[in-house]
TrEMBL record:
Residues 29-194 form the Helicase ATP-binding domain. It comes from Punica granatum. CDD domains: DEXHc_dicer (cd18034), RIBOc (cd00593), SF2_C_dicer (cd18802). Belongs to the helicase family. Dicer subfamily. Residues 998-1128, 1163-1310 form the RNase III domain. This is Endoribonuclease Dicer homolog 2 isoform X1. The lineage of its organism: Eukaryota, Viridiplantae, Streptophyta, Embryophyta, Tracheophyta. Its cofactor is Mg(2+); Mn(2+). The gene is LOC116201081. Residues 561-650 form the Dicer dsRNA-binding fold domain. Pfam families: DEAD, Dicer_dimer, dsrm, Helicase_C, PAZ, Ribonuclease_3.
């Protein structure tokens, strides 16, 4: 299909009208672009982007959503992505997406790209991204309707532009089954050349571009056409005389720099670095040396001094030292610092001296090496009358840009207010500026906040600043393209293009002249060959072997395979001592290359590659074959993405899934009336054992409910005066009449309402609701226990029938209560001879002396326990101020009440008891109240009866009822959850309901127990169960892949999702019990309940609540711990299965593909040390092999065994602590586990038994760090137990081998965990105990600051020659406690600094 000549079908869908302000040549270019593939060759500023915009408008009908097609706009520089996207957004209504590398698009998968295509119609991106997407087939070339190449002159060689065309466009072009996109190229210079060629050579290059792009060049007939629209800058030559630095001074400074260079390269050798690190450090030293020598020779002493200063400053965070370790960086900084200090001695130290004083004198003395710098300054000053100057100075080197702008800022402020900044790329590795910073500088330039930008070629292409009126080439343009594009940056009318050329440099003058003429030559050639069709692409010229995946179409080429292989290796597990990379053994004479992959790679040893030719090609072929093998073994997916990247992305996506934190709160069905017609109840005596002294005695209660309870319910309550034990005993069952049930409900609702609310407002609402006939949904009865139980029966029915409070509105008028009282008087044995006047009228004294009353004058409720016969209304009341008045006077003055029954004895009352949260385990005990403070004297005539008779002991006992029932509800919910699990599987082990309840109770409840210790146990079991399952199931997966797979199963997000699918949030107890929120049985409870079916069981919901994701995950782990701790591992596995986590504990052989060389380690000595004899000693060898040991004799390293051993040790030590110290608080168990299960603890154990002597590795850095650790071993051998007491860092590898040995023993013993513990435990002795436990200093400091309300500031971190420094600061009691520590690792420095601050705080508090 000839796409170059393919026309758009515009019969049915005419293109949109061109923009009204489009110029004539833009319309001509658009017309050509609609008919065929086109390269628009026009001057910078002529509006090429507008042509692309109009083309997109013409194709809008084909790409507008919901169309599956898109347009792609490619730009060569990241800085141009947003600029071009904004133009498209301004002139079209198309949805535009922007993409660049820093967005992490290299790690996107097909699904993410599909989302972007569904959202956007035009995708603006850099070409490497599109090439990556096409190679991995995240979307296909046939989906692109328009493909635009900005600055298309780059399309040559292996540039991404060229690869897109050769690998995909031309491949599709040859097939009749595929459509190809319309191509539009844009350029201000179609070819990149240094000039000097003949016209035939120019045409050859133009024709190559046309062929590669399958497009014809469009351009204007002459510059005069463009001149009507586009301002052209005036070219001016500025010559300067070459005047180098004085020879004597240059020789002296050169010798100085050479001496410092050799000194620091010697430092590299002294530190015995890894070869790669040493080579990188030496290469960086050479690079800095050559950079500084260039500055001395070309720019002068002052700018060389500034360059050294620039390279030395630590606040320059964007400095790149290459692939250096801390030691290499330290050496390099020393080098730069010493150079700066030495050069400082050559710079005039007079405080009055400045570089700006006499520029020509500075040239003569060597401060400025040549008059080129002076010429630049003088040229700029010629424009000082232009206040709004916008100038770009183009330089070749990054260091020149960095120091020149410093010079300009130093000089120009004496003449004007101009500000200068620099922008540079990062090709030299000296400076990396973020995209954001570069964008900010460009914006400041546009707005006039920055007047001068000193830039490398990064700004030659595409920067659109309309107000730029001066461009200066400090260094000559190297190519035609560079010349034309840098000239085009000057966009203002009457702008200038200054070329600084050395006087007498004829070759440069000649080259610049040819550059100037080249534009016209290329225009003439393009026009003269406009009718010549594009040639077919020469397959031999561009052919390259391609590996294509049949199922997806993803491809690897010979060139892309190198990058792919290194990218794959970069995602393999690594540590600070080994970065996995392919290793090449090349025999140049024989033309043979053998590639060795890292040990964690699943591919078996590759066959040698033979290619008698170029070594680079040989290397590429080896990489190409390795990539093919990686795909065949599944290490590269069918999209040719490393499997670990895909797995990691899926894990990340799973964790980002939205989580709805609102969940139903379940209520136990056992306490709900499920519309049963029978009134049969099961009665339980709640024996309350009072373990404190008080003037009021607790007596038992009776619970009547429709369902039977599990036997053995007993728990403790924390009253405000001491402990109380509630013990449930079954007392039989019987049926109650409807009248009895209503009477019981009315009694409990009344009494519980006043105990909870302490007022009658809610009581009236409760009784009105009850009397309205509303049938309660929550149905159980709390009844008083007879004082003579069990000899005199169970329920004390007398108070149950004694509710006298009116159900009508509370008022002073006589009510139904007086009727009850009259009935009582008639039947009273005293025949009413002892009646007292109350608010309800005459009431028998035997009713009043044990009652609950309400006093309307103050709205309070009291318990009456007798009469004060010696006191009446005329008795004296002692006031707080020492005076005394009669009770009659007091009530008159305080409440305006006239007491009429002056002779009536006062009642002995006390404030009604408060229903408290007796499950709260942090309660402070009250001191015993004095009787005089507890007692209240009340005139009977002010009292309204609520319940009478009822003893004060009964009232006090009912104050505990809300807490008792709340705990019962929790136990019933735990039992329901347990039954739901039993519905799923047959459980032989008996799991106590209390243990399930513990797992459902979070720390926020502040009760006697919470889930933390069970969560710790469950977390370790889950980690081990999943780890061993994955280890056995995926024998070819490396540790990184296994860890990601485990994370997908065990992460908080994953566990929360599983928990929600099992409806666990409805069972969780996540807040402190508040009796005021407790549902009083019988009060509107039916309207609060909603039915819901969970796993086929009917559940009742009492509203919604919010529970955090981590809380749900914690409960899942705690439930696992509950089942494991009481039912063993089998019960734990069955619970995991119910959750949806499938694990297999079966034993399977450990297949590794090849045997290991056992002669490399002392098997017998290690077996003696471990107390274990290996059935397969090669496992021991593998467990001691570090990834850096690249010898082919050992195909695997210890990482997989470390992964397994980490989980089994974690689990074994947690089980040991949990079983050894069953009565420890959950928090202490967690702390002991943290102290026992950590890499520092393991590393310390490895050093003690000298395991480092058996470690197989080839890392000089690791050897050095182990040696340093051994040097300090005498300091901590006898005092340090858990690693974090040390002030030095342990190499992580030492801890790793303890874990890998545990993994090796586990596999070799057929997964016998006891043998693992018996072998590893002696190495870890002494294990932590509650007495020897020391908290981690960082945590202890955090806890103290929270407890004492101290201000703990965020630690400050800095890096210097000695390592990493961390400063910890605490403000306590108006004083500052601060300490700074330096170490190799940030964690170590922070730990030591925290310990020092802790010590100071403790000393100060003493």
């Amino acid at each position: 299909m000839d796409a170059a000549a393919m026309e758009v079908d515009i019969d049915q869908h005419p293109p949109s009208d061109p923009l009204p302000f489009a110029r004539c040549y833009q319309l001509e270019a658009l017309d050509m672009a609609l008919k065929q593939n086109t390269i628009v060759y026009l001057e910078t500023g002529s509006g090429k982007t507008l042509i692309a915009t109009m083309l997109l408008r013409s194709y809008a009908y084909q790409i507008r959503k919901p169309s599956p097609y898109i347009a792609v706009f490619l730009v060569p520089k990241v800085v141009l992505v947003s600029q071009q996207a904004e133009v498209l957004k301004m002139h079209t209504d198309l949805k535009v997406g922007m993409y660049w590398g820093e967005m992490g698009v290299d790690f996107w998968n097909a699904a993410l790209w599909r989302q972007e295509i569904e959202k956007h119609e035009v995708l603006v991106m850099t070409p490497a991204i599109l090439l990556h997407v096409l190679r991995h087939r995240f979307f296909k070339m046939e989906m692109i309707k328009v493909l635009i190449f900005d600055e298309c002159q780059h399309a040559s060689g292996k540039h991404p532009y060229a690869c897109i065309m050769t690998e995909f466009y031309h491949h599709y072009l040859k097939s009749p089954n595929y459509e190809v996109p319309r191509i539009l190229g844009m350029t201000a210079s179609p070819i990149k050349t240094k000039g000097g060629q003949s016209e035939s050579e120019y045409w050859q290059k133009l024709q190559c571009l046309e062929t590669l792009m399958n497009s014809k060049i469009y351009t204007c007939e002459s510059e005069s056409v463009l001149a009507n629209y586009v301002p052209f800058s005036t070219i001016k030559y500025k010559s300067y005389q070459k005047m180098g630095i004085p020879r004597g001074l240059l020789a002296q400074l050169g010798a100085l720099l050479m001496r410092l260079k050799e000194k620091h390269k010697g430092e590299v050798a002294r530190y015995d670095l890894e070869k790669s690190a040493a080579d990188s450090t030496c290469k960086s030293i050479e690079q800095i040396y050559s950079t500084l020598m260039y500055c001395l020779e070309e720019l002068g002493l002052w700018l060389a001094w500034k360059a050294a200063d620039f390279l030395t400053r630590q606040e320059v965070e964007d400095l790149l030292w290459g692939k250096l370790d801390l030691t290499g960086e330290k050496i390099l900084r020393h080098f730069c610092s010493e150079v700066f200090q030495e050069l400082t001695t050559f710079v005039d130290s007079d405080a009055q001296w400045a570089i700006a004083d006499d520029n020509k004198l500075k040239v003569a003395t060597g401060y400025l090496a040549s008059s080129r710098v002076v010429t630049l300054i003088e040229s700029l000053l010629e424009y000082s009358h232009i206040k709004a100057i916008r100038c770009i100075i183009f330089v070749e080197r990054i260091i020149t840009a960095s120091v020149l702008h410093s010079l300009l800022n130093e000089l120009l402020h004496k003449h004007n207010s101009w500000r200068s900044k620099s922008i540079a790329g990062n090709s030299s590795g000296l400076l990396r500026q973020s995209r954001k910073l570069q964008q900010e500088i460009v914006e400041e330039f546009r707005e006039g906040k920055v007047n001068i930008i000193v830039a490398t070629s990064i700004l030659e292409e595409g920067l659109d600043v309309q107000s730029c009126n001066l461009v200066i080439r400090f260094d000559p343009a190297p190519t035609v393209s560079s010349f034309i594009q840098s000239r085009g940056r000057a966009r203002m009318q009457n702008s200038d293009f200054l070329l600084l050329v050395e006087s007498g440099d004829a070759s440069t003058y000649s080259r610049l002249g040819k550059f100037l003429a080249s534009g016209e030559i290329m225009r003439k050639l393009s026009l003269s060959h406009a009718s010549v069709p594009c040639q077919a692409l020469d397959d031999d010229l561009y052919s390259e072997e391609i590996y294509r995946v049949e199922s997806t179409g993803a491809v690897i080429t010979l060139c892309s395979s190198v990058e792919m292989l290194y990218f794959y290796c970069s995602r393999l597990p690594s540590d600070g001592y080994f970065k996995p990379m392919p290793r090449f053994d090349i025999d140049k004479e024989m033309g043979i290359c053998r590639i060795h992959m890292p040990k964690s790679c699943p591919v078996p040893p590759l066959r040698p590659i033979c290619w008698p030719g170029n070594i680079n090609t040989l290397r590429k072929i080896a990489c190409f074959e390795a990539c093919k093998q990686l795909h065949r073994y599944g290490a590269l997916t069918d999209d040719l993405i490393p499997d670990v990247v895909v797995e990691d992305k899926q894990t990340t996506n799973a964790e980002k899934e939205p989580y709805d934190d609102e969940h139903p709160a379940y209520f136990p069905t056992e306490l709900v009336n499920r519309l049963s017609k029978s009134n049969a109840y099961h009665f339980y005596v709640i024996q309350l054992l009072q373990q404190f002294s008080y003037d009021v005695r607790v007596q038992g209660l009776v619970l009547a409910m429709r369902s039977e309870l599990e036997p053995g319910i007993c728990f403790k309550l924390q009253a405000d005066r001491g402990m109380l034990t509630a013990n449930f005993k079954y007392a039989g069952s019987c049926s109650l009449t409807e009248e009895q049930v209503n009477c019981c409900r009315k009694f409990q609702s009344t009494l519980l309402s006043v105990l909870v609310e302490h007022n009658v407002t809610k009581l009236v609402e409760v009784l009105n609701s009850f009397n309205s006939g509303n049938s309660p949904g929550i149905d159980y009865l709390i009844l008083p226990l007879k004082s003579g139980y069990p000899n005199e029966g169970t329920v004390d029915w007398e108070p149950v029938a004694s509710v006298l409070f009116p159900s009508a509105e509370v008022s002073n008028s006589p009510s139904s209560g007086s009727n009850v009282s009259n009935e009582h008087i008639k039947g009273c044995c005293f025949h009413g001879r002892s009646c007292l006047v109350t608010k309800d009228g005459p009431v028998c004294s035997c009713l009043l002396q044990n009652s609950v009353v309400y006093t309307p004058h103050n709205g309070r409720i009291y318990c009456i326990s007798g009469f004060l016969n010696s006191l009446n209304a005329n008795s004296k009341l002692n006031m707080r101020d020492g005076s005394s008045v009669t009770y009659k006077q007091y009530y008159k003055e305080r409440y305006g009440i006239n007491l009429r029954c002056e002779e009536q004895s006062l009642l002995k009352g006390r404030h009604i008891f408060q229903a408290q949260n007796c499950l709260f385990w942090g309660r402070l005990r009250k001191e015993k109240e004095e009787p005089s403070k507890a007692m209240v004297e009340l005139p009977p005539e002010l009292c309204q009866l609520i319940i009478a008779p009822i003893s004060i002991n009964t009232v006090y006992s009912y104050s505990f009822a809300p807490s008792i029932i709340h705990r019962l509800e929790s136990l019933l919910m735990a039992a329901n959850l347990k039954r739901m699990h039993l519905d799923h599987c047959v459980q032989n082990a008996v799991i106590p309901t209390t243990k399930v309840l513990e797992a459902l109770t979070t720390k926020q409840c502040q009760e006697e127990f919470h889930l933390e210790s069970l969560e710790t146990l469950g977390d370790s079991f889950l980690k081990y169960a999943v780890s061993q399952h994955l280890f056995k199931s995926y024998g070819n997966h490396h540790e990184g892949m296994l860890s990601i797979k485990r994370e997908r199963i065990t992460s908080n997000a994953a566990l929360c999702k599983l928990g929600c699918e099992c409806n666990l949030p409805g069972f969780i107890r996540d807040e402190q019990f508040d009796p005021k929120n407790w549902i009083i049985p019988g009060y509107k409870s039916q309207s609060l309940l909603n039915e819901e079916f969970v796993f086929g069981r009917k559940m009742y919901v009492v509203g919604k609540r919010k529970i955090k994701m981590k809380r749900v995950a914690d409960v899942v782990e705690a439930l696992i711990g509950a089942y494991v701790s009481t039912g063993g591992e089998t019960a734990g596995v069955m619970f995991l299965d119910w959750l949806g986590i499938k694990v297999d504990f079966g034993v399977s052989p450990y297949e590794r593909g090849s045997s290991l060389n056992e002669s490399l380690v002392n098997i017998k000595q290690l077996e003696a040390l471990l107390g274990y004899s290996f059935n397969d000693p090669s496992l021991l060898v593998e467990a001691l092999t570090h990834g850096s040991f690249m010898l082919p004799e050992i195909p695997r390293c210890y990482q997989r065994l470390e992964y397994l051993g980490d989980s089994v040790l974690d689990y074994l030590i947690t089980v040991h602590l949990y079983s050894t110290y069953p009565r420890l608080s959950p928090g202490l168990i967690t702390d002991m586990r943290s102290a026992s299960v950590n890499n520092d603890c393991y590393a310390l154990a490895a050093v003690k038994v000298e395991l480092h002597k058996h470690l197989l590795h080839a890392s000089q850095a690791l050897h050095r760090d182990i040696a340093n650790t051994l040097e300090n071993s005498d300091k901590f051998a006898s005092t340090i137990m858990y690693g974090w007491e040390s002030e030095t860092s342990f190499p992580k590898v030492l801890g790793d081998i303890i874990e890998s040995l545990a993994g090796a023993i586990l596999v070799d013993s057929g997964y016998n965990k006891q043998k693992v513990f018996d072998s590893i435990r002696p190495l870890l002795e002494p294990l932590v105990t509650p007495e020897t436990l020391q908290l981690h200093p960082v945590r202890e400091l955090n806890e103290i600051c929270q407890k004492e309300n101290y201000t703990l500031k965020k630690p400050t971190v800095s890096r210097d020659d000695n390592g990493i420094s961390v400063t910890v600061e605490v403000e306590a009691g108006g004083k500052i406690y601060r300490h700074t520590s330096c170490a190799d690792k940030k964690e170590t420095a922070k730990r030591v600094a925290s310990r020092a601050v802790l010590k100071s705080l403790k000393q100060a508090s003493v």
